Every structure is written in C-alpha cells, then in structure tokens.
C-alpha cells in the first residue's frame, strides 16, 4: 500500500477555527494510505448487503438514507434529504440527525481505507440551521492514519454541493477486527 503525506485540513470559510481538536488531529508522521485492493471490494459487497443501517439503509423507514455519490481517493461524497421525522425545532433538522449524517459520511471515508473501523470520537460544529426538505451534500476525507487510528474530517452543505457549510465534523475512527461486529450482534 502506498502512502502520501497528511494533507492540511480544509480552510475555514466562516473564519471560525476548524472542527478538529487535539484528539481528532493526526499526529506528526501520520499518513493517508491510498485506498486499494480486494479488501475494499470485499467490504463494499458486505456493506451493500446491509440495508438496515440507520444512516444509509433502505429498510430503515425513518433513517437518513444517505446515498453515496462519489469516491475519489479517501474522499467520499453523499447526500440525503431532511424529512419531517428528522426535525428538532419545528421545521429544522435536529442536530443529532446532522451529527449522524456526518458519522455516516466520515465512516464511509474510513471504510474506503480497506479496513473495518468504528467511530471512537465525533466532534461537530453546527454552522447554519437546516430546513426540513433540504438536501444536505456530504463530503468526508481522511487526514491521517496512525496505527489503528484513522483521522477524518467532513462537511455538510446546503443549497448545492458548493453551497454554504451547515455542519462540519472531525472524528477519530478505530480499526476493529471482524469479530467486533459478531460480538455486538450476539450480545
Ligand atoms: C460504506 C459503509 C459506511 C459505513 C458507515 C458507518 C458509519 C457509522 C459508524 C459508527 O457509528 S460505529 C458505532 C459507534 N461506535 C461504537 O460503537 C464504538 C464503541 N467503542 C468501542 O467499541 C471501543 O471503545 C473501541 C473499539 C473504539 C476502542 O476499544 P479497544 O479496546 O479496541 O481499543 P482501546 O480502548 O485500547 O483504544 C485504542 C486506541 O484508541 C484510543 N481511543 C479509543 N477511543 C477513543 C476516543 N473516544 N477518543 C480518543 N482516543 C480514543 C485509545 O486511547 C487508544 O490509543 P493508544 O493506542 O494511543 O493508547
């Protein structure tokens, strides 16, 4: 597997500091592996079979049904539409729903790395209210991998893929063995 140097985090159009704390910022020397190989295809197939996911599954009636729209390197784009079932304040998306959408998007970018990851830490900035009926355009990317730890950042925009940022996030994902999921199902 080849690797390139960790890229700098995205800019901050709002002038506010970026979303990543010290716990979601890769340490010096962390690298971003190039996604590759049969592992990734295997994982994609297994995940494609699982449509009960609250984030992306078709069988989760009130779920977000995030649709993946593209993968370039570790950058994964997707989108979902905010339904009435996703409201917090009247007419506006609940912050937890937006955090879930970011978890889904960041998780997609982590899985593209070709290993199994779970969210260890998720940090979010809510930048603008998101009305019911809005499509949220999601984008996530890996900022570094250090051993079992994968560092991710992402954002959700409204009004179009290049519209204003409504939510952004930084996360630490932890690599787990396949048994992690078997154990959880049997639990
Ligand atoms: C296309 C497909 C897309 C799929 C998208 C899916 C998106 C959804 C993703 C999820 O929501 S996953 C579900 C939510 N997450 C969980 O349920 C995880 C629950 N937590 C655990 O299972 C364990 O705590 C975990 C596996 C994360 C870690 O336990 P371990 O016993 O394996 O490891 P350990 O606790 O020793 O931690 C390993 C390292 O990570 C660090 N770490 C773990 N959790 C951390 C945390 N929260 N913050 C900072 N560091 C953390 C920890 O300090 C340590 O650092 P060092 O190696 O440097 O000592």
Automatic annotation (TrEMBL):
GO terms for cellular component: cytoplasm; membrane. It is a peripheral membrane protein. Its main location: membrane. Residues 1-24 have a biased composition (Low complexity). Its EC number is 3.1.2.2. The lineage of its organism: Bacteria, Bacillati, Actinomycetota, Actinomycetes, Streptosporangiales. GO terms for molecular function: hydrolase activity. GO terms for biological process: fatty acid metabolic process. Keywords: Apoptosis, Cell membrane, Cell projection, Cytoplasm, Fatty acid metabolism, Hydrolase, Lipid metabolism, Membrane, Transit peptide. It catalyses: decanoyl-CoA + H2O = decanoate + CoA + H(+); dodecanoyl-CoA + H2O = dodecanoate + CoA + H(+); tetradecanoyl-CoA + H2O = tetradecanoate + CoA + H(+); hexadecanoyl-CoA + H2O = hexadecanoate + CoA + H(+). It holds the Pfam family 4HBT. This is Acyl-coenzyme A thioesterase THEM4. It comes from the Bacteria.
């Amino acid at each position: 597997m080849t690797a390139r140097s960790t890229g700098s985090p995205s800019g901050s159009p709002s002038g506010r500091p970026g979303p990543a704390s010290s716990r979601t910022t890769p340490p010096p020397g962390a690298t971003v592996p190039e996604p590759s190989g049969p592992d990734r295809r295997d994982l994609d197939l297994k995940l494609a079979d699982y449509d009960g996911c609250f984030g992306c599954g078709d069988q989760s009636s009130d779920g977000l049904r995030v649709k993946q729209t593209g993968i370039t390197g570790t950058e994964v784009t997707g989108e979902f539409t905010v339904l009435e079932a996703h409201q917090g304040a009247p007419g506006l998306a609940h912050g937890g729903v937006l955090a879930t959408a970011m978890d889904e998007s960041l998780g997609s970018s982590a899985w593209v790395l070709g290993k199994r990851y779970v969210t260890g830490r998720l940090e979010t900035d809510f930048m603008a209210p998101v009305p019911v009926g809005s499509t949220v355009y999601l984008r996530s990317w890996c900022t570094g991998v250090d051993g079992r730890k994968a560092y991710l950042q992402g954002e959700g925009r409204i009004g179009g893929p290049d519209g204003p940022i409504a939510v952004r996030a930084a996360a630490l994902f932890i690599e787990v063995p396949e048994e992690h999921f078997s154990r959880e199902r049997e639990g």
